[in-house]
Design goal:
about 220 residues, mainly alpha, two-stranded antiparallel ribbon, 8 helices, 4 strands, about 10% strand, globular, binds zinc ion
Length: about 220
């Protein structure tokens, strides 16, 4: 079960003060999908890990609303020009997927690493699963895959120990988008990224499983 608490935030872009809901505690008793999407019992915690200012569209984690927030004049301009005008389309009760999409854009304008932006798009896709929006889910999965690919294409874009898992994940994202050929290419690459064959046996098994006889859930 997910328990929420109320927090008071001040937007570092427009100085609006507002109340948001944050996660006090949660669990993952509902199992895990093969793209690592964990399910909690009852309400899902994901939408409450990101906060958004309903006046300008600035979005991020709790830290992004603290004094540590990285707010440059360029970021401010992007938020007003590109996020604020989209708020009316999103509607009054801003869904989790939109919060993560806006947070991903903010992160990109802050010059964040592809690895971090990829995580935000992946979580946007996970929210779409709960929101029942298949088209948007695929859109965000593509963006997540591209960002993970960008992270993997540079030497230090991802931790050495997580390269095999991320390579598998890119394959799984393309599989869930419906591109089986591209998915297979990525599943085939997993073996070359494995560092510790004993500890990472499960990643190889998962890649083989998803290429030959895909499942949507881990056991
Ligand atoms: Zn604001």
């Amino acid at each position: 079960m997910t328990t929420l608490k109320q927090i008071d935030l001040t937007c570092p872009i427009c100085q609006s003060r507002f109340t948001s809901h944050a996660v006090l505690s949660t669990n993952s008793f509902g199992g895990k999908r093969t793209d690592f999407h964990e399910r909690a019992a009852g309400a899902q915690p994901l939408p409450y890990l990101i906060h958004i200012c309903a006046r300008c569209g600035y979005a991020g984690g709790e830290r992004d609303f603290s004094d540590d927030a990285d707010v440059s004049p360029v970021l401010r301009e992007h938020v007003w020009d590109e996020l604020a005008p989209k708020l009316p389309e999103v509607g009054g009760a801003i869904p989790g997927s939109a919060k993560y999409e806006f947070a991903a854009k903010v992160a990109a304008w802050q010059g964040a690493e592809p690895r971090r932006i990829a995580d935000l798009y992946l979580r946007a896709a996970w929210c779409c699963v709960d929101e029942g929006d298949v088209e948007a889910e695929r859109f965000f999965r593509r963006h997540a895959a591209w960002q993970f690919e960008a992270a993997l294409s540079s030497y230090d874009g991802a931790e050495r120990e997580e390269r095999a898992v991320l390579t598998y994940l890119v394959g799984e994202l393309w599989r869930r988008v419906g591109d089986a050929a591209l998915a297979s290419e990525w599943f085939d690459r997993v073996e070359s990224e494995v560092m510790d064959p004993a500890a990472q046996r499960w990643v190889l098994d998962a890649a083989w499983q998803q290429r030959s006889c895909p499942r949507d859930w881990f056991e």
